[in-house]
Amino acid sequence: MQRFDSQRPAASRRRVHVYDHRSEGRTSQPKLLDTSGLDINEFRRLLRREFSLNGNESYELFTTDRIIVDFDKFNEIKDGATLYLMQSKHQQLPGATVEPISFTPHYHTLTEAGTYEYHASEGSKALPFALAELIDNALSATSKNIGARTIEIRMMFDGSIGKPALIVMDNGCGMTSTKLKNWAVYKLSKFTRDDGAFSSERERYARPDPVRRSLNSDISYFGVGGKQAIFFIGNSVRMITRPADSPDVHELVLSEEEFKRREANKEEIFSGFIKNRRPGESSQHDERFLQNLIAEERGKESFTAVVITGLRDEHIAVMKNEFGALTRELAHIYHYYIHGSNGNNLKFPDQNNQIDIQVTLREKPPKIPRAINLREVDDDMQTLYINSAADTFEFTASSLHGDANLEGIIRYHPFLYDKETYPQEPSAEQASALDEDDLQNRGRGKKAIFECFWNGRLIPSTTVSEFDWCSRSSKRSDEPPAECYNRLSGVLFTDDGFKVTQNKLTFMDLELKLKEKDVIFRLVSQRQNTARRGDIKREFSQWLLNCHTLYDKQVKFIGLKDTFERDDPKKKMTEHWTAFSAIEWDGRRFRAGERVRSCRTNPSYYGTVADFLLCGKYSGDVFGAGGRVKITREPRALYSEKKEFPISKIDRDATDASITTYINNELLKFPKELKVEWPESDPWPDNAVRSAGSSLGPLKITILNGKGESKNLIPSGSTGGRTTLNVKFSLVHHGHEEKKTEHVAQYSAAHGFWFTKTDMIELGNYTLSLNAIVSENGSTEFNGTELPSHTLKFTITAGAAQTFMVEPLTTPVRVGVPFNIRLKVTDGHGHPAEAPVQPQPELSSSDLALSLTTAVSSGNMITIQGVKAAGKLREESVELHVSLPGLRKDAQSIKINIRPGLPDSVSVTPKEDPIQVENGNEVMFHVEVHDEAGNVTTNPRQTVRCQVQDCRPQTIDCSSAGAGQFSTKPINLKITKGEPQPLQVSFEMPNHKDVSPVKRELLVLPSMRVTSMELYVVLNNVNLEIKPFDKISWIAGGLLENLFYRLLDEAGRDVELTPEVVSKIKVTWTGVNMEEMERGKLPDIPVPKQAQEERACQVFYEHSVSLSFTVVPLPDEPTKLKVTLPQSTVKLGETLPGNICLELVDKYDNPTRSLTQTCSDQMNVEAEGLDKAAVSFAWQDSSRSVAVSGVCFTGGTPGPREMSFSYQSFVELVVVRVTAGVPAKLTLLSTPPQPLQFLSGTGSDTPFVVQLCDEWGNPSDDQTAEVKITSSPPGLKVTTSGNSHHVNAEGKASLMVDSVSGPKGPYQLMFQVSCKDRLISSPSVNLIVIPDSKKPVKLLVEYDRTARLAAGRFFPVFAVTVASEEGSPVTSFEPAALSMRLWRSGPSGNAPPEEPMEMKCSRPLDNDRKDRYYFREKEIPAITGRHVIQFSLRINDNELLSGDEIPVDVVSDQPVKLGPESPILDPVVSSTEDIANRTLVENMTLFIMDSHGNPAGQDLNGKVVVSITCAQSGRNHSLPLFEGSVTRAQFKLVNGKAHIPRLAIMKNSPGENGTSYVLRFKAEVSVSLAPYRLHFLFSSDAQKQRMMSDLTKKKAELTSCLATYNEYLSTFTDLCELLTAQCQKANQTEAEVRDELKKKNIPIRLPVSIVDIDTMISKKTAEAERVQRRTCSIPDPFTGQQDVLGKVGHLAQLQDDDAARVISWNIGGRLDCVVTRTTAAAQKIHGDTRGEQQVWPLDSMSAPPANRPLPHIQRGRPLFDPPGNPVLARELLIYPQHEQSCKMVFQNLLGDTILIDDLDSANQYRRMVVQKKIYCPTILTRQGDRVESKGIFGGAQNKAPPMDRLKVLAAPFPENYHTIEEQKKLLTQYRSALLNKEEAEKELKQHLDTNNKEKQQEMENKQKELEEVDRQLASLQAKPTKRGLPDTPDSSGISAKIAKM
Fold first, then answer.
1. Helix, strand or coil for residue 1916?
2. Per-residue DSSP letters for 949-972?
3. Backbone dihedral region of 1688: left (phi > 0), alpha (psi from -120 to 50 degrees) or beta?
4. pLDDT tens string 1459-1513
5. What pairing do the DSSP bridges indicate for beta strands 781-782 and 785-786?
6. Inter-CA distances, 970 with 909, 921, 1012, 1779, Å
7. Residue 805, C-beta contacts closer than 8 angstroms, at least 6 positions apart
8. Which residues are 607's β-sheet partners?
9. What whole-number distance in Å separates Cα of residue 178 and Cα of residue 74?
10. 532-541, 703-712, 723-732, 1665-1674: segment of lowest average pLDDT
11. CB 1479, CB 1459: distance < 8 Å
12. How far apart are CA 1620 and CA 1613, in angstroms?
């Protein structure tokens, strides 16, 4: 190989790979030759030298494309090219070759990156378009085929022949290796690629000539679609191609996994190798389907096969399950390539087309393979359009200044009587019946007219609705009907003069170019230009009108009746309809009144035509499409409804006879009669007479229809429903007031309709009616027809007399007053019966004497006349016994009220006559009124008048009490001469003249002293005398003025009021004025303000004469309404105890007693939360007030409540203090920050504060309530500060959760209150025990478990992952914290020893994964057997996390030597007679071992040869001989071991005394092994032999001991060096972290302690917790579960409060939706929550549309300057984690929703967008408004409520929070570094303090002992002697002399 000049610049270097293929059998590796600066001749010389070519040998130099390299082409060869040395161009390759290539994307990847936008369809629709990209390439490749053009798509899903694959094959021209390389370059289009390796071979792109429909196959265009499609469908592609005229097949493999691997290894990504091979060569392929595919290569001149593997699951499902839809879509896309320019006309197919596209699907047997040629598809849309069209209109369009061509065709699909023939999508659902009436959207509907084809293939995402010349104009009267425009379909065929997107889904400029003014449309049939658009419009209108006239077959509507309006619920609008009386349809006339039958309805309807309806306003007969018929269903007895359906559903084959027969048969189903049965008695005949007490029934009723069948149902309704029948029982009692009893019986399968028996008690005439009724409404008619009934009339009469009743006395019985007693005679049921003719009643009573006059009978009544009662009364009620002999029940007793009789006399006491009275005194009389029996009686107007002579008469009313008191006024007679004066007193009853008066005489005795005093009040100049004990009523609060007095002597004369007399007068009130007293005027008396405070007044004269009176305050006029509360406090929900008193009072609160009994109706009360329905007002007659009761407050908050009482104009307010009601619930006032997520074993620093409340949520102060915390499920252990808590005086309790412990997952904390034997539960709080991502719980170990662990070598690399509770790796630990412990498994198991071998973690390398800890080059133990490895993590000083024990089997290494199982001491032998002294080894087993002494040759057999050599080389010693005088001994070696029972030297063996010899054990096996050597000493003296043996043993022991000491000291030194290095590294780390802290403005002042750092961390933690931000209040108990992202409200954050408010409101209830990664996780949550939690799996989520710009931005440029700063709402979101998944979620939720500043800007922006005919999505404003995508705005539903009433997205943490967290993290790192530093220094100090002097001294002593042993052995070996062989001449007589010790 030629050397390369390393100094040559890389730019000028050119190296090529050369394969030597001169002969068929020659295979070689390529040689890399440097051709820099060489011409073709120099290069050929280089070839001859490198490949040893002969001078006369001919060869050719070819490229991999089989192009001969000549002088010019050699200069164009590029660096890295591959060349062949071959005999000829068509020579077969002897073997596969590899051609390195580079396919770096073209620069257009950057320059055109924004030109096109990928608009991929969603779901299964995307796959056909991806396959189309591959078919495009195949069509282009076969475009120059002379014969058939074959394209085959194979879908391989047969696991028996390989993994799933998709193969696209064609028989096109194939690709050379250069073209294949160019194909791999992304965005290398046909315009920029060079498909030839040399300039002379390059084929520049030439635009094809125009052809009809642009079917030029020029559709492999941009260099993008194929690769996009491949990696959309799968993740790997194998390109297999053979170009024409080439014997080689080229293969190129591109793999997503390979790209990722190269990127990870930092290799060149866009590079690879093209494999060049012979056709059919498949030796290197494992997949059977690939082998079969390659086997098909033989015989093919050229081809290309695209083999895609790694198919995505969603595409596999589409290929398998939607094979028909997939092939139909492909047939639609390539319709005109498959069927020719005229399309698939099934009547006249094109037989000349040569393009075959075959699609096959092969699945695992027994499923049968499916195959279809797309030419066989006959239900694609273009086929349906072509074959359903009646006529076509073809045109072309071109521009005056462009080369773009367009052909167009419009097809007309006529209306045929009852249906449109415009084809629908095969997969679309059938239109509903309502759609048939939509005349404006029939046929095409809102679908665009034109589908668009580019270069002959469909561009699916672009359609053209219409052109202005083919759209309807409302101005022209001769326009075709509007519905004709909805019967059009069309196709536009364009060439590449119009641009499409790179994935060929959308036109970029079609509509814009066609709207240009210079576009000219030409009719194909006219073959001439039409410069004006109006010409083609006229032609089109005429063509359309002709189509309508010739092909549309419509219905003629005849006999216009009227026009009306009705609402169309589908269109949400009012439409005009016209009713007609007849129609003509396909030659037949249908008229109103005819009977018709429907078809294609469920059920079929029979009925009479009412009207024919046509949408629109019409003035006469008209032809119309569609229309409806309204019928009245028959028979009407069953169906009363009118039904309306399309005219097209009238059954034209139905005859009148068949319709009539059906209706008559249906009518027999109607109920006809009732069958009445009497199961338990004889039937009653009509007009029967029965006595009272007879039983009617029971009755069993059966409903029979016209067929005599028992039925309880009537078939009815349009949906085949049935009407249930009941039977109504009506019993009418005819009397003065007709009474009616009704019962309804429902049908019972056991008894039918059943009525239980009825006892007939009441007398009279009855009518029983039994009616069948409709169960729903109880009607006896059904659809206007009477239901069957049954009537029975009968009479009930009374029985014979059996008892009597005493009628109550209406008035009380009075003593001596006659009264009558009436007796009512009845039968046994209380009915009146005929009384006895001569009754003989008897009366008796134990208290009274009774008498009667006579007894008279009349009908059923007996009257006892003239009954009198007499006697003294002791009780008001007296029992009276009445008996009537002759009846079954002949005695009755009644209670009668007896009252005294009429007044008969007056009794007056005292009885003396005359009655003496001293002058000036008064006389008292007691009066009673008696009846004739001496009973005190009371009667109305029973007054007694007392007349004292010369005095006014006094009257007392004895009406109520029957007695009274008379008190005469002081008798002041003018007594002269001291003579007593008689006075006459008379007592009489003015109203009872028949009562005799009573008279008495008074004798008045005179007195000489001042014995009387008179008082007067002057009121209005009138003297009002105040008599003793008078009560003077006066206005409360006033003054009793003008009060005068006088003193009288015995003669009744005034006493002169002198100062002396006046001084003896005393008054009981104040204000005495002596001057006024002398004038006879008393002081004014202040009247009390309170009415109940009567003032007793008295005037004294020498304490002998006085006059007392009382001043009674009178209430003034009422001034207010007084409210008196029984108590001022009441609990919510409880009724105020007692009554509230309402009364009218004056200004001093004195009751005025002015209320009346009817006033309670005018009173009202109002108060907040008052249950007014429970309040009642009751009149209190005794106090003339109103009592209010039932006051109860049922809502609101505790506190004072103002109650307003009103009566007429009086209003009074009182305050009632309302306290909290009875405890009813517990509410959470505050909780720790939500969502509640705890790490197991941790708690919360924030307490749960609960509030005990009544049922209205008011705090309750019931301190007996006890609060407890429980959990659900109970697996969670909750520890609080105390097991229970009593609420405080405010009803609150604070509960601190110290810790929660339990498995991870969702839980609920439940708060329960026990209060007075009641248990109150509160809403639970959701919490999640989350896995701690920083808490290590498990060590995961990865290593090569298949590696062979040979003793003494190195273990494979162990990669240890520290897994947290959530399963994520923990990377915060230093590698030194991990260790690997190793020990050998003992007989008792794998239990580790006390001090196992421990190895530390290796230092990380640059390419190591950051989440792994690696243990490299850890030596495997030298001893074979089962060992145990355990990795451990030192979490802190007290916690060690150990991983699982890993058992490993250490096996022996390669066999290298022979040796014993255990060391053998060097033997000492002598040539004595004793065999024991001559034995070298005994019972020794030798093993084949590895280098560590482990048995390693178990599969080796052979022999072991033993020989003796001298230990000291170079000396000629006499060698001892084995027994038998042999120099060699042999032993069998079986399975790697040889057993030597005994090996000894012969007696008298030769050898030198004291000489050391070597036993050499050599194994003779198939491998080379080192021999085992055993030293022994030879001695000729037995005693010396024993001494040397002992010294040898001792030497071995000392040597072993010294080795142990040396190892210990060496280990101590190594450890000291290691600890010193660790200490230095810890100091360095601490300094580095301290410097970082200083940069973050946290200087550390030395010295510092761990406590100081902890304090700083705590401060930073508190500072971070104080950072305020908006949070999402939605609880999320699901985050942390497997495959769960969390609730939507927690997946994104928003900085702007206004945006957060309106966006959160717009999303609404979806914020609570849980997003999962998989459907399985979603189903688990759905099941756990019993379906209450909404879930949303990502794997079933629709792929969001591409990131489209704002609507006003088109093709990267704004169409106008938008107002209001619009922005896409989703672009404002911040995703804390799972960014890609969260983006998908919110793109689905928000779509293209826009956020703008205000409502005005939103409406303006929408108007500007819509004017551009661009769809405008929903717009939200920062003010909270929403403009819907339909343009609707305003109203409460389009206005976001305030933020405090919403659940909103959280805000991200502010910048200062992240700064604090970074500082906190650095402080934590510094704490760790400082702790490591302190521990390293401590450990080093402890190590250095270890005392090794004792071990050093012991080692020196052992060394001295060993030296002494060596000296003794040397002395024993001094002066050696030689011994010869026994049979040699010079050996006899020679003896060894051994020096004596």
1. helix
2. TTS--EEEE-TTTSEEEEEPPP--
3. alpha
4. 998 888 888 888 888 888 888 899 999 999 998 888 988 889 999 999 988 877 6
5. antiparallel
6. 19, 4, 9, 115
7. 823, 824, 826, 892
8. 596, 633
9. 16
10. 532-541
11. no
12. 11
Task: Say what angle helices 1650-1665 and 1855-1888 make with each other, to 10 degrees.
Answer: 160
User: Alpha-carbon distance 593 to 606, whole Å?
Assistant: 12
Report the C-alpha gap between 1122 and 1118 in whole angstroms: 10
Give residue for tokens 């002395």.
Answer: 1915
Q: How far is the CA of 1449 from the CAs of 1495, 1516, 1539, 1779, in angstroms?
A: 14, 49, 27, 46
One-letter amino acid for residue 1566 of the chain: S
Write the pLDDT tens digit of every residue in 1590-1643. 777 777 778 878 877 787 777 778 788 888 888 888 888 888 888 888 888 888
Q: Please give the C-alpha separations between residue 482 and each of 409, 490, 1341, in angstroms, as whole numbers.
A: 20, 18, 77
Total residues found in the chain within this entry: 1941
Sequential DSSP letters for 624-655: ESS-EEEEEESSTTT---EEEEEGGGB-TT--
From the CB of residue 1372, how many other CB atoms can be counted at a distance below 10 Å? 12
* Cis peptide bond upstream of 914, omega within 30: yes
| Upper half-sphere CA count for residue 1473 (Cβ side, 13 Å) | 0
Q: Which runs of E-coded beta strand occur in 56-120?
A: 60-63, 82-86, 97-102
Contacts 24+ apart (CB under 8 A), 1053-1061: 1055/1010
How many whole angstroms separate alpha carbon 83 and alpha carbon 40? 13
HEC assignment per residue over 253-280: EEEHHHHHHHHHCCCCCCEEEEEEECCC
Whether the Cβ atoms of residue 1400 and residue 1435 lie closer than 8 Å to each other: no
Check: CB of residue 343 under 8 Å from CB of residue 336: yes
Query: Which tokens go with 1558?
Result: 């070597």
Residues 6+ apart with CB under 8 A from 845: 869, 878, 879, 880, 881
Answer yes or no: are the C-beta atoms of 985 and 1000 closer than 8 Å: yes
Q: Which residue from 1325, 1243, 1237, 1250 is spatially nearest to 1278, judged by alpha carbons?
A: 1243
Which among 1919, 1939, 1926 has a CA at the least distance from the CA of 1550?
A: 1926
Beta bridge partners of 986: 947, 999
Say if residues 393 and 540 touch (Cβ distance below 8 Å). Answer: yes
d(CA 759, CA 741): 13
Q: Output the pTM of the full model.
A: 0.40
From first CA to last CA, the distance across the chain in angstroms is 78
- Which comes out higher in pLDDT, residue 1841 or 1585? 1841
Secondary structure (3-state) at 79: coil
Q: Is 1208 left (phi over 0), alpha (psi -120 to 50) or beta?
A: left
Q: Strands 1039-1040 and 1085-1086, how do they pair?
A: antiparallel
Q: How far apart are CA 1574 and CA 1595, in angstroms?
A: 16
pLDDT digits (tens, 9 = 90+) for 1876-1896: 888 888 888 877 777 677 777
State whether residue 920 is helix, strand or coil.
coil
Over residues 1428-1467, the pLDDT tens digits come to: 999 999 888 788 899 999 999 999 998 999 999 888 888 8
Highest mean pLDDT: which range of 91-105, 554-568, 1558-1572, 1850-1864:
1558-1572
State the Cα–Cα distance between residues 335 and 385, nearest whole angstrom: 12
Give the C-alpha separation, 1320 to 1312, whole Å. Answer: 6
Residue type, 1426: R
CA–CA dist 1120, 839 (Å, integer) = 69
What is the SS3 assignment for 1889-1905?
CCCCHHHHHHHHHHHHH
Which has the closest alpha carbon to 1799: 1777, 1775, 1818, 1823? Answer: 1823
4 close to 34: Cβ distance less than 8 angstroms: yes
| Mean pLDDT of all residues in 626-642 | 85
